[in-house]
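## Example record

The block below lists the input lines for one assembly entry, exactly as stored, with component labels intact.
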Amino acid sequence: MALQEVIAELNRIKAAGFISDYAVGGAVAAHAYIEPAATVDVDVFVVFGAGGHPLSPLAPIWADLIAHGAKVEDDHLVIGTWPVQFLADGRPLLAEAIGSARAQNFGDQVGKIMGPEHLVAIALATGRMKDYARVAEFIKYGAVNLDALRALLERFGLTERWETFKTRFPTGNV
Amino acid sequence: MSDFDWQRVRQIKDLYRAKLTALPFEEKLHILERLRLRASELRGMWQPTSAGERSATSNVRAFVGSWLFTASVPIVASLPPVQTVSNATRLDMFGPSTTLLFAADLTQSSTLPTTIAATKSNDGSHP
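Predicted structure tokens for the full assembly:
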């Protein structure tokens, strides 16, 4: 299973101190809760370790992964067969999503994936049509705790996005 | 009016999707891997020029652009019929949301366009 190679490398660079934490987000994480959907890459949200390069914090991570066999393909690194996109935004919502991510087995590796409420909140914040469609899937299949989601959205100022979503995707009494 | 039972079709599809959703994570991982490989095979028809162009929504503009920019005269000659709009040649071949605009120098004797631009109107599905 190719994804476990990605998780193994993420765990390795975390153990090596390049990052202090990470969580898989996007479609790969979402499929843990809803129907699998085609995706071309793995979105990995990272928190940098101490002592990283202040202007180019991803550079040493890329250098290390390339030294361990990853290939550069445009703005992705390909680990095994999966293009990986590293995202280091630092916004409080993402920091909380990483901090509260849950352990998930990927073959013989244990990785971290974001929880459903944070995935939905990030999808609403991103706001593309496919993100809204994904949110609708979470709700349709009861994959998200609506009370926890509402509290999260309020905390991060996303209530308006939620209302916009509900007008576009009527999902019943949510 | 068709008497096709759309409600029944929807029920069957919803049932199938619900079963997929309920699969164990490991099985979904295999499905995800197969979906990605299939998408990669389809994209093997063309060479992406940026990561953005590799999105799951398959940026048609990029496909057409790379295809045309690498095209030689025989490819251009085999293009579908085109509409001529003043000094540009307009080619509608990828649905209503995608339009190719050839800023071709039609006054030249060559059939090769001097510049090619691909434009794609936003229908809301590709923000």
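Chain A has a mean pLDDT of 92. Chain A is about 45% helix and 20% strand.
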